[in-house]
TrEMBL record:
Keywords of this entry: Coiled coil
Protein's recorded name: Glutamine synthetase III
Protein family: Belongs to the glutamine synthetase family.
Pfam families: Gln-synt_C (PF00120), Gln-synt_C-ter (PF18318), GSIII_N (PF12437)
Domain GS beta-grasp: start-end pairs: 65-158
Length: 705
């Protein structure tokens, strides 16, 4: 009999959440802490010792012996340093202690994490600061049980060295400006606005033993070599297909571990590519959703190992089949629980929604370059612009209903009606007829309105969702601030404000309608049309990085206190370095695999074939087929060797460069050199006998799970 899972019992059982705090903390302390969490007021240091002691007691009851300040440096992954609760006593024993000071502040080595020049090597001091808006949790692995305290990470001088600090700053900026906007529109009861995010996570699962035989996957997370198998994804039989028992076992355990951590994992299914899957959570506050997504990726990797699997989160593990993204579903919610992106049944009459919509459209158009940058990783360069992911051109899909309302406002100055969905009739009497949505969806759009939220579809599967949300929150706050500046100057009461808001809505839509596109984002015609409209087309991460330090970007980020100029410049350097390091590792791995595995294997097979030809000739048997095969192998081996020599010569030249020049050389030259090595190697894979090829094939990896 299968073990019964009591979801309500295990959900959040490893989280120091609101119900735990309410039960364990004194009422006054709970009320004080709750006010900080919900209203953003300053944390009262006086309550820290009480919270720390109760947190420690709870963690020890769960089996924890250590605690850690869990933070998110600019590496893109999480970091932690474990400290035991023990404190020695004079009699040779220990007390289990955890103070408010230890809860609030930690001190990891700031010089050992990427800082982009903010910190010199000898400047080691950095601080982690408790983020009480994201609950502490117990991370339980096969070998440890650790109390994890989510924290921000900054330098001795206060510069942000992490992903969390700018995110919290951007959330604060959007909260202030959105609340300000709603108040000037007459909604005086709104005291706080938070962003709500639901990131859908795509990933691949392959057999761990086969993974261990692929040095390219081990070193880089993606295959640098590999001929396409006879079957890929063209039959569309994997998408939403029956989940294999081994994968079901993984998904079951993953759900249990996620639910313990309070991660509301809800929807799971097979994705388009063989061996590819997706997990989507229910929405959560921006900060918590970001923490949860980092935790989820880590948990996926850990649970996969239990099942003899390897979880691949790279955006493009296999050339020739779809890669993985992470759709960032974003909306805004007031302290009263109202979703500001819900248009209602008659959006043409919802003036507040239309003003907010127009402002977001303006923000995306004005700062399309920054949004593109926020979805940039070396791995995502393989996806964006291909017919599997949104194009590198930022555009907005609104759907038929809202596009029609926008058209009415732009052309006639007012909107008088909204389209509604017809009833769907299947033609089968026993099937229910129901009202369709007012608009279809568009999977080719990078930034799509999907009913009551925007779905930013460009984000890469390995990324922290902090990056896109920092940009999205800030650019929307920027436009809201400009709108408020105008509305707050209006005299004449509520009617005059409403009239001015209507005028602003029309102006923003008229000025920025070029970014609205409901058609096929994969088509060549759209690329030409986007160029005609003047929309930016930043084709690679290297092209996108400089957008962080344009005069426009610096001015905006500094205005809202999200980034200083120095912090932006540091991130540019970190991104160039990360891109260069990634391609450098890939280039060296390409050489290593080609020279140590592929070339020796091909030469061995070549000798075997040559000996066979000689034997056939000795006995007078026709060897023309074998000779032609030998000739093809020799020609491709020659091409492979020449390509290896070219890559071998260019890598030192790349390594001698710095910053942008280095990243561009890696992008323009080394990446091309790697492709030149791969092409003959993949042809050779199809010529050499399978038992003589030195690594598992694509087919072995994606179909034998």
């Amino acid at each position: 009999m299968k073990e019964k899972i009591n979801v309500s019992e295990i959900f959040g059982s490893h989280v120091f959440n609101d119900s735990v705090m309410k039960a364990r903390l004194p009422k006054a302390v709970y009320k004080d802490l709750k006010k900080t969490i919900e209203e953003g007021t300053e944390l009262n240091p006086a309550i820290a010792d009480v919270v720390a002691n109760e947190m420690k007691e709870w963690a020890i009851e769960k089996g924890a012996t250590h605690y850690t300040h869990w933070f998110q440096p600019l590496t893109g992954v999480t970091a932690e340093k474990h400290d035991a609760f023990i404190n020695p006593t004079d009699d040779g024993k220990v007390l289990l202690e955890f103070s408010g000071k230890e809860l609030i502040k930690g001190e990891p080595d700031a010089s050992s994490f990427p800082s982009g020049g903010l910190r010199a090597t000898f400047e080691a001091r950095g601080y982690t600061a408790w983020d009480c808006t994201s609950p502490a949790f117990i991370k339980e692995t096969e070998n440890a049980c650790i109390l994890c305290i989510p924290t921000a990470f900054c330098s001795y001088k206060g510069e942000a060295l992490d992903k969390k600090t700018p995110l919290l700053r951007s959330m604060q900026a959007l909260d202030i400006q959105t609340t300000r906007l709603l108040n000037v529109l007459g909604n005086k009861n709104v005291k706080r606005v938070s962003t709500s995010v639901g990131p859908e996570q795509e990933y691949f699962l392959v057999d761990e033993e086969k993974y261990k035989q692929r040095k390219d996957l081990i070193f880089t997370g993606r295959t640098l070599f590999g001929a396409m198998p006879p079957k890929g994804q063209e039959m569309d039989d994997h998408y939403f297909g029956i989940i294999k028992p081994r994968i079901e076992g993984f998904m079951k355990d993953l759900n249990i571990e996620a639910w313990k951590l309070g991660i509301s994992a809800k929807t799971e299914h097979n994705e388009v590519a063989p061996a590819q899957h997706e997990l989507a959570p229910i929405y959560n506050s921006n900060n918590v959703a970001t923490d949860h997504n980092q935790l989820l990726m880590e948990t996926m990797r850990r649970v996969a190992r239990r099942h003899g699997l390897k979880c691949l989160l790279h955006e493009k593990p296999f050339a020739g089949i779809n890669g993985s993204g992470k759709h960032n579903n974003w909306s805004m919610v007031t302290n009263e629980g109202k979703n500001l992106l819900d248009p209602g049944k008659t959006p043409h009459e919802n003036n507040q929604f239309l003003l907010i919509l127009a402002s977001i459209i303006a923000a995306v158009d004005k700062h399309a370059d920054l949004l593109r940058m926020s979805a940039s990783t070396p791995g995502n360069d393989h996806r964006l612009g291909a017919n599997e992911a949104p194009p590198a051109i930022i555009s907005i899909f609104l759907g038929d209903q809202l596009e029609d309302v926008v058209k009415q406002l732009v052309t006639r100055g007012e909107a008088t009606e909204s389209k509604h969905g017809d009833r769907l009739a299947s033609g089968v009497h026993s099937l229910p007829a129901f009202e369709k949505d007012a608009t279809d969806r568009n999977r080719t759009s990078p930034f799509a309105f999907t009913g009551n939220k925007f779905e930013f579809r460009m984000v890469g599967s390995t990324q922290s969702i902090s990056d896109p949300n920092v940009v999205l929150n800030t650019i929307v706050a920027d436009v809201f601030a400009d709108v408020c500046d105008r509305l707050e100057k209006v005299e004449g009461g509520a009617d005059a404000v409403a009239m001015e808001a209507h005028e602003i809505t029309k102006e923003l839509l008229t000025e920025h309608q070029r970014v609205i596109f409901n058609g096929n984002g994969y088509s060549d015609e759209w690329v030409a049309e986007a160029e005609r409209r003047g929309l930016p087309n930043l084709r690679s991460m290297v092209d996108a990085i400089p957008t962080l330090t344009t005069e426009k970007s610096i001015k905006m980020f500094e205005k809202f206190g999200v980034f200083t100029k120095g912090e932006l410049e540091s991130r540019v350097e970190v991104l160039y370095e990360q891109y260069s390091n990634t391609i450098n590792i890939e280039g060296l791995a390409t050489l290593d695999i080609a020279k140590k595995q592929i070339v020796p294997a091909v030469m061995k097979y070549q000798r075997k074939l040559a000996n066979g030809v000689a034997e056939l000739k000795t006995v007078g048997v026709d060897s023309s087929v074998q000779e032609k095969l030998l000739e093809d192998i020799t020609a491709n081996l020659k091409d492979l060797f020449a390509a290896i020599k070219k890559l071998e010569a260019d890598i030192p030249e790349a390594q001698a460069l710095e910053s942008e020049a280095q990243a561009r050389f890696y992008h323009d030259t080394i990446f091309t050199d790697m492709s030149a090595v791969r092409e003959p190697a993949d042809r050779l894979e199809m010529l050499v006998a399978k038992e003589d090829w030195p690594m598992p094939s694509y087919g072995d990896l994606i179909f034998e799970v």
